[in-house]
Structures are given as structure tokens and as C-alpha cells.
Amino acid sequence: MELKNLRLCEAGIQYSCYKDYIIYRLEGAGDPSVPFLDLSLTFWVYQEGEDGRVLEFPIGSQCMEEWGISTETLAEWAKVNTPRLLPAQVVGMSELMGGARIRKDGKEREMVYFLTNRTGRFGSAVITYEGILKELADHLEADLFLLPLSVHQVLAVPDEKGVDPKALLGIPLADQGLTEAERLPLRVYHYSRKREKLELAAQA
What we know:
alpha+beta
């Protein structure tokens, strides 16, 4: 259940009730937000009920004013809450559709990975989670190229010899009925295992 009417704050909903449920999403733009590379982290309340229903609503400037909190405070809470409430999932291509694997030093490994969260919704934010890219890069013993497919998932491939980041921009993306708000700018990012840094590598 997504609540789009921000009159919630006017109804007296208190910040203290929701501070443990403040999360962020990785989107193309938003206000309020904090920048992440050339994208934006927007803030939401996300709470799952015992009956499986979800309460979620965006935190706008009106809520911030009513609650008397800053963007920095939202970011601090969201950094803690988002990985806790929506832990990352890293799935190899072969797990999804029997894709090919490559061998390195006698070990099999995936050629392509998909990164999302446990719900599969707005899972692209997992690339901001502390340690998630380092863990995958260490597992592959390679740097990574990352292509956000939408706000919901990110494709990751090891930076092996011959991999052209510009060629990744040509990967056909399944539309799957995405709205304009669910799309992200067509970009490829590079994660350096040694420097533990994510940077823009190619753009359309």
C-alpha cells in the first residue's frame, strides 16, 4: 500500500514512530535527496505488517519540516535501515536461466550477476550498501562493471580482458512494463576492487 498523499504529517504522524523505517531508493532524481554519482537517493518510509501488507510513502519537504529533521538525518537513518529491512540479493545468471559460466584457476563462476534486494523492488539501491560490491569483487577476484537495468536491479559483470563497457550499453533491456520513473539513465559504472571506489565508465 503506497501512500502518495503527504498530508500524513498534517495528521500528526510523529517522526519517532517511523525513524526505524526510513529507507532510501536509488532514482534518477528526487527532492529531497542526496547525490550518489549522477543519481539520487530519495527517502521513504517502508514498514511491513505482520499480515504481509506494506506501508510505504515518500518523505517530502513537508514531512521534513513537520518532523524538524534535516536531509543529513534522513540519510543517517536510511543508511542503517535500508540494508536491515531490505537486505541485498546477488543472483547469478545460471541460477535464473541456466546461463554459461567461466573458469578461472580451475573454479567455475558466473559471467553475469543480478543485484537487487529481497523483495525485488527498488533493489538497485543495494549497490550503495557498505561492503556489497567489495564482497562480490573479492569473490570474482576482479573489478566490476555495473549496468543499472532499472530502479529495481543492477547487472554486474567482472572486468575481464576484452570487456568493453560501451558494449554493455547495447545490452537489450527488458521493458517489463516499466514506468518512466522506474527507468534510470543508461550508464555503466566501474567498481575498482583495489581502490574500493565506484565511478562512471560509459554513458549513452
